[in-house]
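PT: before anyone asks, these are the final sequences, not the draft ones from last week. 871 residues across everything. Please model them as a single complex and drop the result in this thread when it's through.
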Amino acid sequence: MTGILMLLPILDSNSYHTEILATAALYALLALGLNLIVGYAGLLHLGYAAFFGIGAYAYALLNLRLGWPFWAGLPAAGLIAGCSAVLLGLPAIRVRGDYLAIVTLGFGEIARVVATNLESWTGGPNGLMGIAHPAVGQVRFGVEARPYYWLLVILVAATAWACARLRRSRLGLAWLAIKEDELAAGCLGVDPLRMKLLALALGGWVAGLAGCVFAAKQGTITPDSFDFIQSVMILAMVILGGLGSIAGAICGAAILSIAPELLREFSTYRMLLFGLMMVALMRLRPEGLFGNRYQVPNGQSVPGTKRRV
Amino acid sequence: MSETLLWVDRVTKRFGGVVALSQVSFEVRRGSIVSLIGPNGAGKTTLFNCVSGVIRPEEGAIRLFSGGQEELLSGSVPHEVARMGIARTFQNIRLFAGMTVMENVRTGTHVRTQAGLLEAVWPWAGRARQEEHWAFERSSRLLERLGLSAVADRPATALSYGQQRRVELARALASDPELLMLDEPAAGLTRQEKESLMEFLRELRREGLTILLIEHDMKVVMPVSDWVVVLDYGAKIAEGVPKAVQEDPHVIEAYLGAR
Amino acid sequence: MNGELFLQQLLNGLTIGAVYALIALGYTMVYGTLQMINFAHGEVFMVGAYLGLSVMLVFGLAAPAPGGAAWLVMVIAAAAVGCALLGLLIERVAYRPLRKAPKLSVLITAIGVSFFLQNAVMLFYGAQDRYVPELLPARRMGEGAVSVTPMQGVIFAVSILLMAGLQWVVHGTKFGRGMRAVAQDPLAARLMGIPVDRVIAMTFAIGSALAGVGGVLFGSYYSTINFHDGYLVGLKAFTAAVLGGIGNLPGAMLGGLLLGLLEGLGAGYISAQWKNVFAFAVLIGVLLIRPHGLLGERLAERA
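LR: through. Structure below.
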């Protein structure tokens, strides 16, 4: 599978197409990360783009201020984003469902505004420029999308593989348990707090990696790329694909990043159509493309099992 | 004292103005079956919730004597309590709806396994593989024992009520507990299923398990229990061997008197 | 800050606070009856502002207009009706089918509606700020450095009237009783013969109407509106609702005024960008420290 994807840009050397593919791959990575948080652990997170941004800014600052090369910045960005996710998550996860969504939304917005206003650190609304592209030995990546695409495909494949293994592991079962019934899971020995933070850490890590690659490719980053709309976009991809599904996350990302390109003429109606799509999706097929009907978003139990403490 | 596994010591729990539990004290001896009975609303499930850490009592303490050590249960969080060797079932069955029967039971083994993040991702971690194997084996054996092998891969909520109760039981047992707490395990079961349940509880007792159960059906409670504790309006009004409790005038009044 | 400036800021703060309160009422009513956060409510407010603008344009009103007050009342009424209809439409099409759906589905739907409305308005009216004619004379009344514009007076009057009216409806009418019943226990209410669907629809209608009025008042007060206002003001109004205690009507009113006050008093010290963050910070703070708000009762965690 990965092999086929890798070959695509060679077969179709249209650089515009490759650009789109690279974007799709980037979103696929982000969707996989968010899938861990929303799909596996069941946390309604509306501020995911913030970690994407933190990863991007982390690499940018490490590179511009401390001269770190890309390959060192990549894991660093992941770590920093992962840690932020945990830090911001600590107060948030103790709050109830819809409120959790609001709090994460809030943190996301605050992060963006902070990035816009702390001029001396983050370059303010104009962002940071002149970020170095990655280099392998003597060969430096340029602005052309192809090598980034390959790098992203590798990252996506690795992440997808890790997610698959996680899902089948003891941790995967634990996440499913707390998502279904946190109380019962607790009484069985699953520590919900720890599991949620773990999901956040991993999701943040992935977003950080994506951010780093994004920053390296663009060379310039501004806070606008990491706003609420971005968070919703990534969430929509995960939901479209089916919460908890790896293939779903990737497909959802592919569809939602490629479709706008195909529908270029409708670009002014983009948000309109996007909004309509979300409403329609929830009405017609809330479990998404690859979800299963027993696991509709936020796993409410099938009637027959009452909940009362 | 060394025979005591669980010691509920003057536990008091208030919800706003309502006193749900008032200075409740009793002991559960290791290897015995103790039943907690009383009219509806007496505070039985509240007591269970205090023991398993779901709620915190205002006064009093709950102690567990495990591995030669005394542990303070009250004030612990549910998953800590589980780790100390206590497993429970719920009055309204709380199975995990998105999972199969086998998966439900497997979650019970969580507390006895260690595999963390690295082992989850790294495919060559031997210990994780062993653990998974153990978990699977244990779950399979339990399912077999409870007659659920045939439905192991079905969604847990697709089963009959009686079967679901058994799945919950298997799940609780999967954690290899020292103390098993059952909240109305016989509710909704047929006569035959109740007989099987009673036999199963006796079996578990023979294997050394300590059981604390809440139950309304006296035909289940009396034959199976070594000791009975009676609650009414949050206070203990009697305790003793089944026969004695049955004949206790306070108990009779509580059940038959005006409420 | 000297006394007069303080008072002036106070007045200004209360003015915008009244608008926030009107919108917050909509959030709180919907949350009370459906336990959902109506993400799209802010956009209804925004639509209200634009509807008001449209009406003014249709009638060729410019500033200042003769008989301005009367026209203003008409514009307000038009926006109220328009938004009520919009609210009914949204409830019927987007939310009602999802009555039994899990929280996330409803949330996504609400966000979808919100995006849709934002974009629709943007397409229709353009992405730039639009100028709203001031129908009332702009002269200030008052002594010294403390003054009130007629517009502010109108805002106070209208809000107080509407809030009082709402209280009367909720506590003094049969419909209000129905609302409260549905908020407490929808199933029991249905069993009692209360037309739950109709009550919910009317709740949306009322809440949206109030938001629409708020929109017109907002537009007239600030003289410019933008399709983005729904998000920003909606967020503040939601914060106000949570601050006062979500599900609690007097709480929403109190929260709105309080938030407006805080903003007004801090206006000198906080720049616009930070002001929005300020609202978020308050929101998060309340949710973390005292989720039931100032006037809300401590609710047990619902499973």
